[in-house]
Amino acid sequence: MTDAKAERWKPEGHPMLGVRGSVALLQCATTLILVFSGINWSQTIPLAMMQFVSACTLLAQWDKSGRDHMYVVRGCASLVRAIVVLRTSACGRVFPPWAGCDAEPWRGHENVRLPFRCIHVLACVRQLANAWSLLNQYHLVGDGVTPDNGHRQLWIRARIRLAGVPIQLARFVLKIVLLDDTRYERGDVEVACNFVRAVLLIPLSAWSLNHQYYTSGSDPPPRSVQRGCACLELDHVDYNPSGQGGLHRAKSNVGLGDVELTETRPAAPADDADAETPR
């Protein structure tokens, strides 16, 4: 009975979805620490909500494959985050958001905060790129899928995610260098959260996307088609990425860089095949 129950609840999705879902929950927990510390509620409260939504969608896809609409939900969450970050860039940490707008750094006054406003703009662009990638993955089924590699947007989104490392590191360093001993000095909790995101949570999420890209190929690979159309497969079962034989990377479920090379040969010409056939 226990074995049957365990088999029933066995996740159907790629294991890396579970990894990213767990990381998203840790991101949400990190943001909640800021919320409970009373830090920047105009940004941290909606950020925690969107991180929780993203975590739920990832865990839902890990639990049961085929829930592609979760890409749309996660993309919308990224769009909301982009709007929140853009508003913070323009108006600062004013709470509630409708209480006013602190645009002094953009006007050349108290420009010690201007670098942080510029970083917020970069963070907004990153969230928009992440949303575009998620919606693109939903719209184009099997885009770039080969026997070795998964959807093209997994590779792209891994790089988008990794772009968060310099953003968080810049916040961590600049809060120490520029804001110490000023009236804008940040607390140790906030600075520590930036550091944890930069060196642990974001790299782990980016690695997970990259690893899923290299371990979720399809054999034979589907053609890139728009959602709603039948997914067509290539005519050739023996798919050769080069088309000319030689060495290519075999499908692997191991870590990055640990792949097996196999040698393939082009198909024999029809005349040669007939010549070898007994008459």
Explain how this protein is built.
The protein has 279 residues and is mainly α. The protein folds into two domains: 213 residues; 40 residues, no CATH class. The chain is 57% helix and 4% strand. It contains nine helices and four strands, in the order αααααβαααβββα. It has a two-stranded antiparallel sheet. The protein has a two-stranded antiparallel ribbon with strand order 3-4. Helix 2 runs antiparallel to helix 3 and helix 7 packs antiparallel against helix 8. It is elongated, with a radius of gyration of 24 Å. The C terminus is likely disordered.
- The helix content, as a percent range, equals 55-70%
Order of strands in the sheet with most strands: 1-2
* Average pLDDT metric: 83
User: Shape from CA axes?
Assistant: elongated
Strand content: under 5%
- The rounded Rg comes to 24 Å
Largest sheet: 2 strands, antiparallel
Number of helices: 9
Number of strands: 4
Characterize the quaternary organization of these chains: single chain
Number of domains: 2
